[in-house]
Amino acid sequence: MEYIKGLIPGLALALAITGSAGFLAQTSWFVQIHISALSLAIILGILCGNLFYNRVSGYLQPGILFAKGTLLRLGIILYGFRISLQDIGQVGISALFADFLVLLFTFLITLRLGIKFLKIDKQVVYLTAVGCSICGAAAIMAAAPVLKAPSHKISVAVALIVIFGTMAMFLYPLLYPYLVSYLSPHQFGIYIGSTIHEVAQVYAAGGNIGPEVADTAVIAKMLRVMMLAPFLFILAWYWNKNDRGREKIAPPYFALAFIATAIFNSSGLLPAEIVRWLVEADNLLLSVAMSGLGLSTSFDAVKQAGTKPFLLGGLVALWLVVGGFAINFILYLTMN
Question: Membrane-crossing residues (predicted)?
Fold first, then answer.
C-alpha cells in the first residue's frame, strides 16, 4: 500500500501534463500542423521538469519512473491492437518488401553515419536509427529499456523524429505531382508508409493527397510497426554481443506480448468498440510515459548532445526521401 501511495504524486503530475497535451492537440493550431498529443506530452514534460521538478523530485520520482517504465511497456503491448495480420493482404507483398528494405538500409546507414562518420554517442545513434527505421517515438521508447538509455538521450532521438517527421509530412504532398508519373497512387502510399516516421505523420501526409493514398500509407506503416518486436530481440542480442563491457540486457519479453496482442486482434474476437477503447487507453498510457520521460529530462543534458544528432537526423531524412523512393520505384517496376 505504501508503494502505491508513493506513486500517486508523480503519476498525478504526469497525468496532468498528459491531459494538457491532449487538450492542446485538439486546438485548431496544433490540428493544422498535425502535432500529436504524444509529442506535446514530452515537450510539456521537459518544460515542467526543468522549471520546478528538481525542487520536489524526491517524492515525485517513484511515480515518474513508474510512468516511463511499467506504463511504457504496457503501452507497447496494447499497441498491438492497432494492427492485424489481415493488413498484409490489403497492401500486397510489395509493401512488405518496401518496409523491410527501408528498415534494413535506414538502420544500417544511420549507424554508419552516426557512429563512424559523425562520432555521436552510440546510444543516441541506436535510438535514432530505431525511430527512423520503424515507428518513430513509440519505437524509441520501446528500444530504450533494451539499450538502457537515459532520459536525455531518448529525448534527443524523439526530438529528431518530431522535427524531421513533421517536415516530411508537408514535403510528400508537394512531391506527389512530380513523382506520381513514376509511382502509382497505391505505390506512392507505400512509399509514404515505408519512409515517414510517425503513424500520425503518415496519415497526415497521405490525407493531404487523397483517401486511397492515405489508407495504403497507414496500412504500409502498420506493417513496419509489426516488425518492431522481432527487431527488438535482434537488437538486444546484437547489443549484448558487441558491448561486452556493459551489463547484459535481458530479452525484451514485452515485445512477445506485443506480437501476441496483434495476433489476438487479428482473430476478430473482440468487438470493434472494445478495440477502439483499448487503442484510446494505449494512447493515454504512451502519453503518460512520454510525460514522465520529459519530466526526467534536463535541458543541460540535452544541450550536451550538441548539433551533430540534428545533422544525423537531416541526413537520414534525406536518405528516406531519395533512397526510399528508389527502393519503391524499383519494386514498382519489378512487380508490375
Answer: 35-53, 91-111, 123-144, 156-176, 218-239, 251-272, 309-333
Q: By residue range, what is the domain housing residue 248?
A: 2-335
Distance of CA 157 to the CA centre of its chain: 10
Residue among 18, 325, 309, 32 nearest 164 (CA)? 309
Please, are residues 161 and 129 in contact by the beta-carbon 8 Å criterion? no
Taking CA atoms, 309 is separated from 51, 114, 269, 303, in Å, by 25, 8, 44, 11
Instruction: Name the residue type at position 42.
Output: I
3-state secondary structure of 246: coil
| Cell numbers for 223 | 506493417
Residues 266, 275: Cα–Cα separation, whole Å: 11
Per DSSP, helices labelled H in the chain are: 2-25, 28-33, 37-51, 57-66, 72-78, 86-91, 93-111, 122-133, 136-147, 151-179, 185-195, 199-207, 211-226, 228-242, 253-266, 272-295, 299-303, 308-335
Tell me if residue 299 falls in helix, strand or coil: helix
Question: What are 124-164's pLDDT values in tens digits?
Answer: 999 999 999 988 888 888 888 888 888 888 888 988 887 88
pLDDT tens for each residue of 228-262? 888 888 888 877 776 644 555 555 677 778 878 88
Provide the mean pLDDT of the chain: 85
Number of domains in the chain: 1
**Which pLDDT belongs to residue 192?**
96
The pTM (predicted TM-score) of the whole model is 0.78
Q: How far apart are CA 37 and CA 296, in angstroms?
A: 18
Determine the Cα–Cα distance for residues 110 and 108; give it in Å rounded to an integer. 5
Q: For residues 216 and 225, give the distance between their C-alpha atoms in angstroms, rounded to a whole number.
A: 14
Residues of the chain with pLDDT under 70: 31-35, 53-57, 87-88, 242-252, 301-302
Count, residues in the chain? 336
Type of residue at 235 = L
CA 231 – CA 132 distance, rounded (Å) = 13
Map grid coordinates 518486436 to a residue. 229
**Residue 80 carries which side chain, given as an amino acid letter?**
G
Cα–Cα dist 294/152, whole Å: 8
